[in-house]
Amino acid sequence: MTQVLAATIPDAVTFVIAAAICVLGALGVVLARNPVHSALMLVMTLFGVAVLFVEEDAQFLAAVQVIVYAGAIVVLFLFVIMLLGVDQKEAIERDPLPAQRPVAIVVGILGLVEVLLLARGRWPTGARSVSGTIGSPAANVGLIGRSIFTTYLLAFEVTSALLVVAVVGAVVLARRPRPALGESAPPSGAVVMPDDAGAADGTEPDPAEAGTGETVRAGREQQSGPRADSEVTAP
Amino acid sequence: MSIAASWYLTLAAVLFTIGAIGLLIRRNVLVMFMCVELMLNAANLTFVTFARRLNDIAGQTAVFFVLVVAAAEVVVGLGIIVSIYRRRPGATADDVHAMKG
């Protein structure tokens, strides 16, 4: 079965469409000005990669890709983007390293060329692991499950520990800073200061708008004053 | 596998390069994070391609673990980003070059 290398037409069409979706989405992630657009383009790329997973007989991974990546990770990205309100444009004019972008593009393209040259003929040795072979596409989930729960059981348990550590770390990081037990009231006030600053930032536009409104009103009065005077004095 | 593995490897290399260049040229921390996800997906695509070519299920198992680690990484990384933005709103990657608050 693996000797069949002739690309059938439906597989080739599927690959081309999915690859185009992947590359366009990836370019959109990099080039989009708005981070929300970047996240949506990332979803597009992830769906394209999921299609390629199905094409490569990895049905379980395609489902996990859509559920975990598009359903959890990108939604987490969007939550953070919309909670923080960081959809402003990047400040490019005060770039401390102006030469970094062209150098990064050149180095990236050089790396791509190198990898493509390597991908032409250098294959791995083909040594088998002890996990087992890919059977029929219908048995994909069972094969992965057997591999995870027998051969890679220790890694799976370490993964559960990693997830617990990540959850605890996220809770600790996202918690608001609180004063220590031994501290008195003034340090606690000092700790709360960032929140107050944030609240002040949130309420700043109102006085600013009021100030501009006053100035506009004053300007109108100043404009209307001479105009009235001129109208009065014209006749 | 009816399509030659070189096509998949080429696509994975292109995706990885786009992610790496984006990581280097963008200043927004969240977009840089998304570029890291792009690079992880390119590596996953390579894993799945070689799993199919070598007829070995271990490549797909590796992708499973990469997915779990990526999820944990995103949780912790976004927590760090939220704490950074809470302290100084509108920060880019150049503003947080030092680890002190």
- Determine the CATH topology of the domain at 8-87 in chain A: Four Helix Bundle (Hemerythrin (Met), subunit A)
The greatest inter-chain interface is formed by: A-B, 94 and 74 residues
Q: What is the CATH fold-level name of chain B? A: Helix Hairpins
Low-confidence stretches of chain A: 1-5, 184-235
CATH architecture of chain B: Orthogonal Bundle
CATH class category name of chain B: Mainly Alpha
Total number of beta strands of chain A = 0
Q: What is the H level of CATH, i.e. the homologous superfamily of the domain at 8-87 in chain A?
A: NADH-ubiquinone/plastoquinone oxidoreductase chain 6, subunit NuoJ
Which sheet architecture does the biggest sheet of chain A show? Answer: none
SSE string of chain A, helices as H and strands as E: HHHHHHHH
Structure, explained:
The complex is a heterodimer of chains A (235) and B (101). By secondary structure, chain A is mostly helical. Among the domains of chain A are: 8-87, NADH-ubiquinone/plastoquinone oxidoreductase chain 6, subunit NuoJ (Four Helix Bundle (Hemerythrin (Met), subunit A)), CATH 1.20.120; 185-233. Chain A has helices spanning 9-31, 35-55, 59-84, 100-121, 140-151, 153-174, 185-203, 205-233. Chain B has one domain: Helix Hairpins, CATH 1.10.287.3510. In chain B, 76% of the residues lie in helices and 0% in strands. The termini of chain B are far apart. At the A-B interface, helix 1, helix 2, helix 3, helix 4 and helix 5 of A face helix 1, helix 2 and helix 3 of B.
Write the layout of secondary structure elements.
The complex is a heterodimer of chains A (235) and B (101).
Chain A: H1 9-31, H2 35-55, H3 59-84, H4 100-121, H5 140-151, H6 153-174, H7 185-203, H8 205-233
Helix pairs in contact in A: 1-2, 2-3, 5-6
Chain B: H1 5-25, H2 29-54, H3 58-87
Helix pairs in contact in B: 1-2, 2-3
